[in-house]
Amino acid sequence: MIFRQLFEPVSSTYTYLIGCEQTGKAVLVDPVLPAWQRDLEEVRRLGLELAFTVDTHIHADHITSARKLKLEAGSRIAHPAMDQLSCVDHPLQEGQPLTLGGIVLEPIFTPGHTDGHHAYRVGERVLTGDALLIDGCGRTDFQNGDARALYHSVRHKLFALPEDTLVFPGHDYNKRRVSSIAQEKARNPRLGGDRDLEGFIKLMDELDLAYPKFIDYAVPGNRECGVCPPDVPESLDEYCDQIGDSQQG
User: Which CDD domains match (predicted)?
Assistant: First the structure.
């Protein structure tokens, strides 16, 4: 299996490229709109063909490039079924792996950051999206977020994976790239150690985080699998600045 971790600096998002050496097919997990050309070039540089894009959830801090990559590369859009997006070609749900040659992508329903969030296990790795970050977790104060649900998702689902499972998060803001289930269980300051449910709920309730600056554009755009709304202000253009570019001219 080919595995690449790609970083998009505007939203500090990790995109994951997973390729099957036998079939030459590839999957991109959580691709970001401004980086679609880079991602597609990397797929092709490796001699692969993009078969699917997969998102962990409806993002609030960036717009997915799923629709753009479908237009440019003919890939199919896979997304958690419970979000009921009409633009999705392949709905995903826990217990029904996405198999592509030697790649087996196992959806794990991990609500809490959003009500439809899924992580994806791929062999000895788990792509945790915004549910579990390195020494942290996603916020729970919008998009039907729920601290109680996130605690259950992480402590009873993700932390139940083998301890040597590698944790690849959806974001990192401190240039960290990978952790492990054992490490997060032992030292994650929000969810690790002996953190109990009520303590976690209290912690999340008291974070007092700023309103996400791009959420009002990202959420409707992502409900259409990657459309940048026409009213994005100039100050946020960097989130959409490559949507008009095309390798097809």
Answer: POD-like_MBL-fold
